């Protein structure tokens, strides 16, 4: 990371170029010179050339250590003057040359650090390596700018340098910036190129947590740029940790007093910790160098690192580096107004009650803990903001189904209870904010007149790797696949119908939720949905009749059976009846297919509901259908498989109902006879117990059959 | 419920003593100092507590950063509550020894089981390679 080589004072850029192609062993030697024995003993360090690559965080740590340890030695012996120069294309290189002629240590340090830290070097200095003439010029201008601020106070220098995130000024003089070359005219796709690179790794909490929402919801068009290595500023905490403070206190800083003018900055150091200000932080880090013993000498614990202190009171770490934090124990007493508008009023009430009951426990402990509040307020808000953003939903009814339903039911209950008494307005209505659904249609980028596809890909426009083209299969393959295709077709149909069905089922709930204006549209949609559902069951040629084949196909799939079961109540009467007829007609086949799935019983309820509404003639037709084949009925009755219980029960109930309703009909007599015949025919052991028997079935049978048979029937039915 | 009423957040748990159980079975106890949106946790003055039977031992570990996906559960520890459990604290060496013995015993039984299954021509894949799939 660091390469040091001693240079003469008048080395030129070219020489440095060569000098940078160093061998590894040189590094160690110079490393040693700087950090090892060679350095500490005497201040023979004439000059230091730091070549640091993109790892500024490491640089800063090392730099700080370096400054703490080394520069105090130097300060005692000689004054360091830092001459800074920037060299592009090889990373960032900083030269620290010794020169006679005395200059303010603090100021030069400031310059050193300010120019080194890309975050602060916003003053005209490039945030990206520009061609050398440009950069030299800019750096010089930066230096000039700094020179002008000779006030002897560091704060002013920092103010001059400006905020870390200030957009680069003085770009006017950099006409050569090759990275700003515009791409050729586009023919499509508004969003192109990488998302705007902030000079901070993605995971870092922002120092100005304002633009998060904006950036995520409004992706802006960005020019395509050549990929540039941005230097990231060191992701520093905004305060010095207690450990660092301990290190500072125990470091060789305690040696000599500093020029008095640095005195008042100590309070700034403390203020930096306390107020988490980033500007002051920089001065604080600089003042690491200038730590005077003006403040009260804190008897800090030597084992500054960790020590598990569980179960006991916090250690006697009462002394701090100066005045106690001004906002210590009062964090929780002022009542915090939260944004609870998205919650149901009842929910809100519950929450406030809960919060009040909790009260202010645990305040004192936190104020005594020296490591508390490592996570600053801004950082907490940042995390909270991210979490809240994740909660935004385009369809709260879908995403937050249980919450919405629960409070809906509660509202209904309350309305019912409060019905007559008071005319309470709808104060307890839940209003959930909804984020508008933004459709991001992505069209791959094509430049006019270019050959082939673009290679620059990013988060917003992923590269199209495969051109999927539909090809027709050859004939021999076709036959094999036909079977599969058919099944796939069925499954596909079932899925489509299911989604329609779900929408139809939710219609009522949705209807209540939507405001008045949108109800029309919803109704329309509902109608189309139901129509579509009906039509899907129908024959292709005859629009009115329910397709046998289609129904059977659907029923051959487990999901299809469930679908039909759910669908039946929503179908118009005629169609429902037709479907039931189809089922009856194909019952044996269906029963056979259902052996594995065993879902036929789910059909019982809706089918019986339909049957109840059937007219008597329809019923007789139905029964006839049931008896269609020879011994079909018997076969069905005999089937021992578990679920057949219900089917058998169902069957038995039908003639019962028929007869109950229209005892005078002649066809029914026939049917009853046949039914009884079948029933008798089947050995009772194989007859599975029916689900339900209409109460007067026996009495009905008694009308038609003689005593013997009646008794047999009785046995069988029980 | 501090910042976002109606939701659960770890913000209120900051600077409190917590016990966290990790996916690899370790139990850590420490002061929760920082979190992020993935529930990555920063623990301070962490202690790894090993339980073997009725004994337990604490190994001081310092600062821990736990990746959020490895947390099984996390709970605040009440420092005021009197500690009247039947657990007995022992020294680190002892608990590590106990743990080693426990591991050994488990391995023995596992070996026997595998042998028995092998004799019958059955095989059950080891759970540790499967992870959660």
TrEMBL record, chain A:
Q: Name one GO biological process term.
A: P-body assembly
Q: Where in the cell is it found?
A: Cytoplasm, P-body; Nucleus speckle; Nucleus, PML body
Key words, A-Z? Cytoplasm, Nucleus, Phosphoprotein, RNA-binding
Q: Record's InterPro entries?
A: Pat1-like, PAT1_dom
**One of the record's GO cellular component terms:** PML body
The superkingdom of the source organism is Eukaryota
Region span, Disordered: 159-207, 312-344
| Predominant place of localization | cytoplasm
Ranges of biased composition (kind: Basic and acidic residues): 171-180
This chain belongs to the protein called Protein PAT1 homolog 1
Q: Which organism is it from?
A: Cyprinodon variegatus
Automatic annotation (TrEMBL), chain B:
Top-rank taxon: Eukaryota
Gene that this polypeptide is encoded by: LSM1
Family the entry assigns: Belongs to the snRNP Sm proteins family.
Q: What is this protein called?
A: U6 snRNA-associated Sm-like protein LSm1
GO terms under biological process? deadenylation-dependent decapping of nuclear-transcribed mRNA; mRNA processing; RNA splicing
Q: How does it assemble?
A: Interacts with SLBP; interaction with SLBP occurs when histone mRNA is being rapidly degraded during the S phase. LSm subunits form a heteromer with a donut shape.
Q: What does the organism's lineage look like at the top?
A: Eukaryota, Metazoa, Chordata, Craniata, Vertebrata
Compartments, as annotated in UniProt? Cytoplasm; Cytoplasm, P-body
What PROSITE patterns does UniProt report for this protein, alphabetically? SM
Which GO molecular function annotations are given, in alphabetical order?
mRNA binding
User: What is the protein's known function?
Assistant: Plays a role in the degradation of histone mRNAs, the only eukaryotic mRNAs that are not polyadenylated. Probably also part of an LSm subunits-containing complex involved in the general process of mRNA degradation.
Recite the UniProt keywords alphabetically: Cytoplasm, mRNA processing, mRNA splicing, Phosphoprotein, Ribonucleoprotein, RNA-binding
One short Pfam name that applies is LSM
The protein's matches in PANTHER family, at most eight in alphabetical order, are given as: LSM1 (PTHR15588), U6 SNRNA-ASSOCIATED SM-LIKE PROTEIN LSM1 (PTHR15588:SF8)
Quote the SUPFAM superfamilies the UniProt record gives: Sm-like ribonucleoproteins
Question: Where does the Sm domain lie?
Answer: 5-80
A single Gene Ontology CC term: Lsm1-7-Pat1 complex
């Amino acid at each position: 990371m660091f390469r040091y080589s001693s240079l003469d004072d008048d080395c030129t850029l070219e020489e440095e170029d060569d000098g940078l192609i160093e061998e590894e062993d040189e590094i160690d030697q110079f490393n040693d010179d700087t950090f090892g024995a060679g350095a500490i003993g005497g201040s023979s360090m004439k000059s230091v050339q730091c070549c640091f690559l993109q790892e500024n965080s490491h640089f800063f740590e090392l730099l700080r250590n370096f400054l703490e340890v080394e520069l105090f030695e130097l300060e005692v012996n000689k004054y360091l003057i830092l001459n800074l120069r920037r060299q592009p294309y090889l990373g960032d290189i900083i030269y620290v040359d010794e020169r006679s002629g005395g200059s303010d240590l603090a100021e030069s340090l400031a310059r050193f650090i300010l120019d080194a830290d890309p975050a602060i070097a916003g003053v005209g200095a490039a945030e990206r390596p520009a061609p050398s003439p440009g950069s030299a010029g800019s750096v010089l201008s930066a230096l000039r700018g700094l020179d002008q601020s000779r006030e002897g106070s560091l704060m002013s220098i920092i103010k001059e340098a400006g905020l870390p995130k200030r957009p680069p000024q003085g770009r006017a003089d950099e006409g050569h910036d090759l990275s700003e070359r515009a791409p050729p005219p586009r023919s499509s796709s508004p969003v192109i190129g990488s998302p705007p690179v902030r000079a901070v790794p993605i995971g870092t909490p922002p120092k100005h947590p304002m633009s998060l929402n904006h950036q995520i919801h409004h992706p802006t068009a960005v020019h395509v740029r050549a990929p540039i290595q941005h230097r990231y500023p060191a992701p520093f905490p905004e305060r010095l940790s207690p450990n660092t403070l301990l290190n500072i206190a125990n470091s060789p800083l305690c040696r000599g007093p500093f020029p008095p003018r640095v005195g008042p900055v100590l309070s700034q150091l403390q203020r930096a910790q306390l107020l988490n200000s980033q500007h002051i932080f920089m001065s604080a880090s600089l003042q690491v160098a200038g730590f005077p013993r003006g403040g009260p000498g804190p008897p800090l614990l030597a084992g500054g690192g960790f020590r598990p202190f569980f179960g006991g009171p916090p250690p006697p770490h009462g002394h701090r580096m100066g005045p106690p934090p001004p906002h210590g124990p009062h964090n929780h007493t002022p009542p915090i107004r939260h944004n609870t508008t998205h919650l149901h009023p009842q929910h809100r009430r519950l929450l406030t009650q809960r919060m009040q009951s909790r009260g202010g426990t645990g305040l004192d402990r936190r104020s005594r803990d020296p490591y508390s509040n490592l996570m600053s307020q801004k950082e907490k808000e940042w995390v909270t903001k991210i979490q809240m953003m994740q909660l935004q939903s385009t369809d709260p009814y879908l995403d937050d189904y249980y919450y919405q339903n629960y409070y809906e039911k509660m509202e209904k209950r309350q309305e019912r209870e409060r019905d007559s008494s008071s005319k309470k307005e709808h104060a307890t209505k839940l209003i959930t904010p909804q984020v508008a659904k933004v459709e991001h249609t992505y069209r791959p980028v094509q430049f006019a007149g270019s050959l082939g596809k673009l290679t620059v890909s990013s988060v917003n426009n992923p590269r199209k790797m495969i051109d999927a083209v539909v090809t027709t299969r050859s004939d021999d393959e076709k036959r094999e696949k036909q079977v599969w295709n058919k099944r796939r077709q069925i499954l596909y149909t079932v899925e489509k119908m299911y989604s329609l069905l779900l929408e139809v089922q939710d219609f009522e709930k949705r209807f209540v939720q939507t405001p008045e204006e949108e109800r029309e549209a919803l109704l329309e949609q509902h109608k189309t949905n139901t129509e579509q559902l009906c039509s899907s069951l129908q024959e292709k040629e005859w629009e009115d009749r329910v397709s046998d084949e289609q129904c059977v196909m659907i029923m051959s799939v487990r999901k299809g059976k469930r679908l039909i079961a759910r669908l039946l109540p929503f179908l118009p009467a005629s169609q429902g009846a037709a479907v039931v007829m189809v089922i009856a007609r194909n019952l044996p086949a269906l029963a056979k297919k259902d052996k594995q799935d065993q879902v036929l019983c789910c059909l019982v309820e809706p089918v019986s509901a339909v049957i109840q509404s059937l007219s008597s003639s329809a019923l007789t037709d139905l029964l006839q259908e049931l008896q269609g084949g020879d011994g079909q009925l018997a076969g069905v009755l005999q089937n021992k498989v578990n679920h057949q219980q219900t089917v058998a029960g169902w069957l038995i109930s039908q003639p019962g109902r028929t007869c109950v309703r229209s005892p005078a009909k002649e066809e029914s007599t026939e049917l009853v006879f046949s039914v009884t015949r079948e029933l008798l025919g089947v050995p009772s052991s194989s007859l599975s117990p029916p689900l339900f028997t209409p109460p007067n079935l026996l009495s009905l049978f008694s009308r038609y059959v003689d005593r013997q048979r009646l008794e047999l029937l009785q046995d069988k039915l029980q | 419920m501090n910042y976002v009423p109606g939701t659960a957040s770890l913000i209120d748990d900051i600077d409190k003593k917590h016990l966290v159980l990790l996916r690899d079975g370790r139990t850590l106890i420490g002061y929760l100092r920082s979190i992020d949106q993935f529930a990555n946790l920063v623990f301070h003055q962490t202690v790894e507590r090993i339980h073997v039977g009725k004994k337990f031992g604490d190994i001081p570990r310092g600062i821990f950063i736990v990746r959020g996906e490895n947390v099984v559960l996390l709970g605040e520890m009440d420092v005021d509550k009197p500690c009247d459990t039947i657990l007995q604290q022992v020294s680190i060496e002892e608990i590590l020894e106990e743990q080693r013995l426990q591991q050994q015993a488990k391995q023995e039984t596992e070996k026997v089981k595998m042998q028995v299954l092998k004799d019958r021509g059955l095989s059950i894949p080891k759970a540790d390679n499967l992870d959660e799939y």
